[in-house]
Write a structure and sequence with these properties.
Blueprint (H helix, E strand, L loop, with lengths): L3 E4 H22 L4 E2 L8 H7 L9 E2 L3 E5 L10 E5 L10 H24 L7 E2 L2 E2 H22 L7 H7 L12 E2 L1 H27 L2 H8 L4 E4 L1
Parallel strand pairs: 1-9
Antiparallel strand pairs: 2-3, 2-8, 3-4, 4-5, 6-7
Helix pairs in contact: 1-3, 1-6, 3-4, 4-6
Amino acid sequence: MCHVIVTCRSMLWTLLSIVVAFAELIAFMSADWLIGKAKPSSSEEEDNRTGGSQEPYHPTLGIYGRCTKISHMQLSRRDTLCGPYAENFNEIASGFWQATAIFLAVGIMILCAVAFVSVFTMCVQSIMKKSIFNVCGLLQGIAGLFLILGLILYPAGWGCQKAISYCGHYASAYKLGDCSLGWAFYTAIGGTILTFICAVFSAQAEIATSSDKVQEEIEEGKNLICLL
């Protein structure tokens, strides 16, 4: 018989697992990993026509995508074009970024799988006599290691020609040049830290759902068990 067991710790672990998976996925897909040096957004002729100058803009560069402005659309609100600069995996600007993409993709796939499974831990607490929380926690730890490898390799690709075109000639491996780090990079780091927190917290979720109080309510014949 299926017993629905809901505790504060198990629900918190489930919510964190979902948040971490989405945060890493959004960061991976974003083009805001590097913020390039400022570039003028309009020509002198357009400045004279509009009666003033526009603020310079900062193009952004991701692992496989970028955002920049199109000159003939500068007077429109839709003047920023974002999309992948690489049509396939081999066109990613650096071999280090290709490795980063692989490690992050593997880590994110594991996190998404765990997030999906975590939703069903209210009904299923074990698989083949092993705690589903412990298994998911182990997978989250492995995913965290993949994410760390990807984030360590990513700065090694700052010396590629694509990064130099955005960050200037002083850019090199682990040196940003004229660029700065965007929110996507910090989100990926924050998600990685939360991944390990989730892995540790999964043990608390296991303890909460297998406590003596839960067992007592199961013996009383309750199918829905909610505990603080």
